[in-house]
Amino acid sequence: CDYCGKKDGGKLQACSLCRSVHYCGRACQLADYKAWHRDDCVNFARPPFTAEFLTEPIGEAQFAQAPVFASGHKDGVGFWVSVAGNVEASLDLLVDPVCPKSALDGIDRFDKTALDERRARRCGLQVQNLLTLVVLVQNRRKDGQKGLVLSAQCQLMSVCGVVDDIMKGRVEGDRAFVWQWSGREATVICAADDQWNDEGPRLCVTYINGTKVTGSRPPPQVLNATRGILALNPGDYAIVHMQFRVGFGEEISRDWEALCRMRSFRLPAVAP
User: Fold this and answer.
1) Count of CB atoms situated within 10 Å of the CB of 133
2) N- or C-end of the chain: fewer Cβ atoms within 10 A?
C-alpha cells in the first residue's frame, strides 16, 4: 500500500484515475488523496496529446492507436507505456549475426514485418522473442528543474509463477534476475542486449517534443542516445522505443501473451 506500507498479497487496488499508486483499502486511498496525492493525481492523469502517441480514438477510429498499459511518475517526471503495433501482433524477432551479412541488409531493427521466422530459420539464425514497448515520458516538475531520465535502467517485472516462460531464450549480456515477491518467484528483466553490434541495450529515442530524432544531430535533450539518457526541461516530452526479451518458443509468441505475464514497469527519473 502506497499509504500505510502494508503488503496485501497482490490484492491492492490502483487509483482509478492515474493508476500510478495502489492502496489496501478505501480508508488509505482517501487519507492519501487528502494528504498529498490530489495534486499528483491531476498532474499525471493523462499524457500530452501528440500524433505520435495517440491514447484516445480520433475520427472514426474505434480504438486508440497507443492504448496505455502502464503509467507512473517519479520526482515530477511522468511516463506512459504502450506497445508498438497491435497487441495481437507477433513478437519482434532479433537475429544473431552468425549468418552472412547480406542476410541482414535492409532490415529495420524495429520493423515487425521485415524478417519473418521462416526466413530466419532458413538462414540458420537464432530467433528471439522481443516485446517492443513505446514509452512517452514528460517532465511536469513545478519547480522549474530539469528531469533526468535513465532509459537504459528501465525494468519489467513479471507476475509470479511464470519464471520459466520468461527466462527461456536468455543470452549472454542480458540483464535478468529472479526475486521473491509475496513468497513466490517473479522475474525482473531489463532492456535486451543488442547482439548486432554491441551498441548496448535495444532502445531508441524516436521523438522529442513531436520532432523526430535523427542520428546525425540529436536535440540537446538527448545526452546519450545509446543509453537513452535524457535531460528534459519542464514541459518537454520524449518518446522512446525499447525492447525486452520475453521467452522463447510457443509459450509466448504474441505481444498480449507477454503483456499478461507482466506486473509492473519501472523507468528511473531523477532531478539532476
Assistant:
1) 25
2) C
